[in-house]
Write a structure and sequence with these properties.
Elements: E1 2-7, E2 10-12, E3 18-26, E4 30-39, E5 46-51, E6 57-59, E7 67-72, E8 77-82, E9 91-100, E10 108-111, E11 115-119
Parallel strand pairs: 2-11
Antiparallel strand pairs: 1-3, 3-8, 4-5, 4-9, 5-6, 7-8, 9-10, 9-11
Length: about 120
Amino acid sequence: QVQLVESGGGLVQPGGSLRLSCAASGSIFSANTMGWYRQAPGKERELVASITSDGSTNYADSVKGRFAISRDNAKNTVYLQMNSLKPEDTAVYYCNARIRRSLYDFSNTYWGEGTQVTVSS
């Protein structure tokens, strides 16, 4: 069993910063691509940023230059540093990971339950 637990969400003013963390736990042989998605009310869930096991990153155009994704492979943890936050960044942020549980299993996709990020004055 694999679980992803997010932390670091909250309420911030426009222009502020937050750092989200997501720790994977359980039976983990290896963690491949990890990333962050977000979903605002009435909107489709969208990819914010992703990072491969070797450090290659990908960002949504709306967050380039403001957000930075990183990971600690030894801890099976992925981070999202969010700077210069805007009201339109308000959403529930979900951690996502492709995880292989054992040598005899293939990778599967796992999701966290989400953490609320609210950017407001």
